[in-house]
């Protein structure tokens, strides 16, 4: 028997885009794009002639979702009435008593594996999709048995880990395929029998999710010798999060720094993407990059820009440390502390303190 | 630097005054209120400008304090020459707030000076290498301000921290410390501030967190409202079914009522028909309208109820007798041959039989007569015929009343009866069908009309009871329905705002994150500034500890000179708090515990030591003292003047005094080298 399906998860519809919190309008736009991503997934399921669509949790943000969004989802699912859509809850859309999973009337082709729902069966494909790692009645090996699980795979178990699970447990469970959710990055063929797959989020949600994002088109063929799995990753994301370092050491003012940063932007991505630009390099003592102004100058170059100033004033600290008087002594003390710092964060703090002190001594003022 | 000339156009009570100090000692003498202190204040006023701004309550600012009393010109000029020989003329107009500096070529060099925070050129800072705070705490001593308080000492200590600098002007530990402190206070915020950026952000974060909690509560209420709405709708639906069910019951009750009425009418009409028929039969009986059989019936009935006195011989008895006759006859005829009986027996039997036959014949004849004869005359013999017409009318009237129609004949009654009977049948079927339908509707209404007992209730209960029970049930159901409808409206109202809540919650969450990021950003900067301040303070203290021996050594020398060797060991710590070794005992005492005059000597030693130190590699400065020997006796004054003469040869010293004795003592020491200027007197050279 053979079954073909599309696996996705972690759409986080109606999520507050805290990574874009400092810009007006962009969070709303991204939320709209997440909805469009769902629409694209539906179209892909149709075009791929999938037998079913698996959504592995975190479909929406329980604390923020609007009912209109739920209705939108239902409209989308109704576009593929002949394709079963199987959904499991996640940590962001738990099946709590007030959950829309339990209180809303979903289209007929949507099946939510929550509460008392043990599994969903596709009889014509002799396939069962389970929402629990240990089904009470065990697994029928004559079926293609698929596990949908939203949890943390093979991470050190801590209080923060959501539904931690080990790959060897999944392997030992006897499932032919594990459709995993929760991680926003792709996992392909993990576990001893290489049956664990995580599609990641179809659209990236923060700067810790750089790279490509999309869904998995999978096919399982099960015969007497076991299940053969073939998968293909399909890119669905419209935008990318990109981090770049821009050396503005030769710049003397914010305008020059903005021009330099723009060059880096053009080399690394498109105007549709979201950038975190780290300004670095040794700059003149008299130039303190104004990140807000530089960001304004770059606003038309990308969908979103976040600037971090890591430039270093071009003091000749080696020479200054040799000076008598307060300037030299202060510099020597700060350099000693920087050398003794236990981490990069502490070192940066010390260096920032050194710059403030030098500015205070030399200029009699400190620009924040 | 030395002051070449002071030109006062208008300054306090002084007007159009020119003073030309010389090298060496200049004694500016005048009575009280001659303007000595005002003249002294003119000097830093020309060098550094006059401050205007926030001042302690009740005290005028320097700019206001020295406004000319007559409202005339307010300003003047000062000519000074530096150690390198260059000369500068500084002209200030305090009224307009303008200043000009001319070099010895009379070129306006005002623009060559850096601009300070008060937007005025930093003239003396550059020419003297010293700011006003340092100037007024070292070489410039105002009346009764010889001693330094804790702040003054700390400021001087901070200034000294950079005494070994590479000569970069403006480097000041105090300035740097203040710059960082100001930045911390104004751009970040401290735990004690309320309106600075960090404070505002923290306050905003608190507001956002409160808003988030409030929105979450609303959201939770909305979630529950959603469930409650669903429950209310289901309840409404059930109540609507129950209402419909009760409406059906209402119909059934009406059917039952109609059925009862019809049955009652049917009974009435049936009875009417029967009675009318009887009445008609009676009428026919006497009008010949009846057939023989009918007559027999009536006659028999009449006889049975005593209405008619007639033959009492029942028909059956007559038949029995006749039958016996026939049997005996037959037996006799046969028996004559078979059973020989006496002819008497046979004769008797024949006689009885004949008698029976005669009676039968008579009965028939009577009947015939009764039924064909003339109608019985009204009287006690046929009471139903007597007034039959009236009775008939009464019956018809009753029948008409019962069925609500005018019935005038038996036929009409019969027809009506047929109609009613037919209707009854239909009603029964309809009621039965209606009950079955109601039961089949599976309405879950409990109570009096529950489907399980509906059949019995409809058929067996009395109508009044049914009506009362129905009224009670419908009232209750309608009330519940109304309550459910109101609940739906309420929940819909709550849910109507769920989009706004979600939007607001997302916005609050996003802003919360943004604010937290800003707070983290500012806190990181604040931490860096605090670290800078901490290390700067540490460095400053270390440097002060380094210069302390130098200062102390100088102070020791100077105090020895001022006290003719009585005190030799005067020391200050890194904050320039003074302690002195008492000559006889060697005990160290705080200078604050000494007598006024002795303490003044100590502070004069400190000031002179600091002046030496701070001008060591820089511009030499005049000493400008106002009534600095006020607490000194003649000997101390003489010792001090002698010291100044010994140590500061060639230096310019300006002493303001009202004491003639000081002039005399100075003259003893300086003789021709003293310049005596009388305020209120013409300048004279001694």
User: Which strand order spans the largest sheet of chain B, edge to edge or round the barrel?
Assistant: 7-11-12-3-13-14
Rounded mean pLDDT of chain B is 82
Could you tell me the strand content of chain A as a percent range? 15-25%
Major β-sheet annotation of chain B: 6 strands, mixed
Describe the structure in your own words.
- The complex is a heterodimer of chains A (368) and B (686).
- Chain A is of the alpha/beta class and 368 residues long.
- Chain A is built from 9 helices and 17 strands.
- Chain A has helices at residues 26-47, 67-78, 100-103, 167-173, 254-268, 291-297, 317-320, 325-340, 344-363; strands spanning 2-8, 52-55, 85-87, 110-112, 119-122, 127-130, 144-150, 177-181, 187-190, 196-198, 214-223, 226-235, 241-247, 274-280, 282-283, 304-309, 312-313.
- In chain A, the strands form 4 sheets. In chain A, strands 4-3-2-1-11-12 form a 6-stranded mixed beta sheet, covered by helices on one side. In chain A, strands 5-6-7-8-10-9 form a 6-stranded mixed beta sheet, covered by helices on one side. In chain A, strands 13-14-16 form a 3-stranded parallel beta sheet, covered by helices on one side.
- In chain A, strand 3 (85-87), helix 3 (100-103) and strand 4 form a beta-alpha-beta unit.
- The model of chain A has no long low-confidence stretch (mean pLDDT 89).
- Chain B is 59% helix and 10% strand.
- Residues 164-170, 373-381 and 682-686 of chain B have low confidence and may be disordered.
- At the A-B interface, helix 8 and helix 9 of A face helix 6, helix 7 and helix 15 of B.
């Amino acid at each position: 028997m053979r079954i073909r399906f599309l696996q996705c998860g972690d759409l986080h519809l109606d999520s507050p885009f805290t990574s874009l919190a400092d810009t007006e309008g962009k969070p709303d736009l991204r939320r709209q794009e997440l909805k469009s991503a769902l629409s694209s997934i539906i179209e892909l399921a149709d075009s791929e002639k999938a037998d079913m669509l698996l959504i592995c949790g975190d479909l929406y943000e329980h604390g923020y979702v609007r009912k209109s969004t739920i209705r939108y989802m239902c409209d989308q699912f109704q576009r593929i009435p002949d394709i079963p859509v199987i959904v499991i809850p996640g940590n962001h859309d738990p099946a709590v008593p007030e959950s829309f999973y339990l209180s809303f009337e979903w289209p007929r082709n949507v099946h939510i594996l929550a509460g008392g729902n043990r599994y969903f069966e596709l009889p014509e494909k002799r396939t069962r999709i389970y929402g629990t790692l240990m089904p009470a009645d065990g697994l029928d090996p004559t079926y293609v048995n698929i596990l949908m699980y939203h949890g943390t795979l093979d991470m050190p178990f801590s209080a923060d880990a959501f539904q931690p699970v080990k790959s060897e447990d999944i392997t030992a469970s006897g499932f032919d395929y594990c459709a995993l959710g929760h991680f926003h990055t792709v996992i392909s063929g993990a576990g001893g029998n290489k049956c664990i797959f995580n599609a990641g989020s179809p659209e990236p949600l923060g700067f810790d999710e750089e790279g490509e994002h999309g869904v998995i088109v999978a096919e399982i063929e099960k015969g007497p010798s076991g299940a053969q799995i073939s998968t293909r990753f399909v890119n669905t994301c419209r935008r990318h999060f990109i981090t770049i370092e821009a050396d503005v050491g030769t710049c003397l003012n914010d305008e020059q720094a903005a021009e330099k940063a723009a060059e880096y932007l053009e080399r690394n991505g498109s105007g549709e993407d979201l950038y975190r630009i780290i300004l670095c390099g040794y700059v003149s003592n008299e130039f303190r990059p104004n990140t807000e102004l530089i960001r304004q100058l770059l606003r038309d170059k990308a969908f979103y820009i976040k600037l971090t100033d890591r430039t270093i004033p071009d003091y000749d600290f080696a020479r200054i440390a040799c000076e008598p008087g307060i300037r030299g002594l202060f510099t020597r003390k700060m350099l000693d502390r920087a050398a003794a710092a236990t981490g990069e964060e502490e070192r940066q703090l010390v260096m920032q303190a050194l710059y403030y002190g030098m500015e205070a001594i030399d200029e009699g003022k400190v620009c924040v | 630097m030395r002051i070449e000339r002071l030109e006062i156009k208008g300054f306090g009570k002084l007007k159009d005054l020119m003073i030309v100090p010389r090298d060496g000692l200049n004694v500016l003498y005048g009575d009280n209120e001659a303007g000595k202190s005002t003249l002294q204040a003119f000097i830093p006023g020309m060098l550094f400008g006059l401050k205007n701004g926030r001042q302690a309550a009740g005290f005028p600012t320097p700019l206001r304090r020295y406004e000319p009393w007559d409202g005339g010109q307010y300003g003047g000029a000062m000519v000074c020459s530096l150690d390198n020989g260059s000369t500068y003329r500084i002209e200030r107009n305090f009224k307009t707030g303008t200043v000009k500096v001319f070099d010895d070529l009379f070129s306006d060099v005002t623009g060559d000076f850096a601009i300070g925070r008060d937007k005025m050129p930093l003239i003396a800072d550059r020419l003297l290498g010293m700011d006003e705070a340092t100037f007024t705490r070292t070489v410039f001593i105002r009346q009764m301000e010889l001693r330094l308080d804790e702040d003054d000492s700390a400021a001087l200590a901070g200034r000294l921290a950079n005494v070994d600098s590479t000569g970069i002007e403006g480097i000041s530990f105090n300035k740097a410390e203040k710059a960082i402190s100001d930045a911390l206070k104004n751009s970040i915020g401290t735990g004690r501030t309320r309106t600075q950026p960090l404070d505002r952000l923290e306050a905003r974060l608190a507001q956002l967190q409160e808003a988030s909690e409030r929105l979450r509560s609303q959201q939770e209420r909305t979630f529950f409202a959603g469930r409650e709405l669903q429950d209310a709708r289901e309840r409404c639906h059930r109540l609507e079914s129950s209402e419909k069910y009760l409406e059906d019951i209402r119909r059934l009750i009406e059917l039952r009522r109609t059925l009862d009425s019809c049955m009652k009418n049917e009974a009435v009409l049936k009875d009417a028909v029967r009675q009318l028929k009887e009445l008609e039969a009676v009428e026919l009986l006497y009008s010949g309208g009846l057939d023989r059989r009918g007559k027999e019936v009536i006659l028999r009935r009449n006889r049975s109820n005593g209405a008619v006195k007639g033959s009492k011989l029942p028909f059956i008895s007559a038949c029995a007798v006749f039958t016996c006759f026939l049997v005996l006859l037959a037996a006799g005829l046969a028996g004559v041959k078979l059973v020989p009986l006496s002819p008497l027996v046979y004769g008797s039997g024949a006689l009885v039989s004949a008698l029976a036959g005669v009676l039968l014949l008579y009965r028939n004849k009577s009947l015939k007569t009764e039924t064909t004869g003339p109608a019985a005359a009204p009287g006690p013999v046929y009471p139903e015929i007597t007034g039959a017409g009236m009775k008939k009318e009464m019956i018809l009237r009753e029948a008409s009343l019962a069925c609500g129609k005018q019935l005038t004949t038996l036929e009409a009654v019969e027809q009506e009866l047929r109609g009613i009977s037919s209707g009854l049948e239909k009603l029964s079927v309809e009621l039965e069908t209606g009950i079955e339908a109601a039961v089949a509707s599976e309405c879950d209404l409990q109570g009096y009309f529950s489907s399980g007992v509906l059949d019995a209730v409809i058929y067996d209960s009395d109508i009044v009871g049914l009506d009362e029970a129905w009224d009670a049930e419908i009232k209750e159901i309608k009330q519940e329905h109304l309550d459910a409808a109101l609940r739906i409206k309420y929940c819909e109202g709550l849910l109507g705002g769920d989009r706004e809540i979600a939007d607001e919650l997302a916005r609050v969450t996003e802003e919360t994150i943004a604010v937290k990021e800003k707070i983290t950003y500012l806190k990181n900067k604040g931490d860096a500034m605090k670290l800078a301040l901490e290390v700067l303070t540490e460095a400053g203290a270390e440097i002060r500890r380094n210069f302390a021996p130098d200062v102390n050594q100088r102070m020791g020398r100077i105090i020895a000179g001022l006290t003719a060797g009585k005190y030799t060991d005067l020391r200050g710590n890194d904050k320039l708090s003074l302690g002195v070794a008492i000559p006889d005992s060697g005990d160290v005492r705080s200078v604050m515990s000494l007598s006024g005059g002795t303490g003044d000597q100590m502070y004069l030693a400190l000031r002179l030591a600091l002046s030496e130190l701070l001008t060591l590699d820089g511009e030499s400065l005049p000493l400008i003292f106002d009534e600095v020997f006020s607490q000194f006796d003649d000997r101390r004054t003489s010792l001090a003047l002698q010291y100044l003469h010994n140590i500061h040869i060639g230096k310019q010293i300006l002493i303001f005094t009202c004491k003639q004795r000081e002039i005399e003592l100075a003259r003893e020491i300086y003789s021709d080298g003293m310049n005596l200027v009388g305020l209120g007197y013409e300048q004279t050279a001694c």
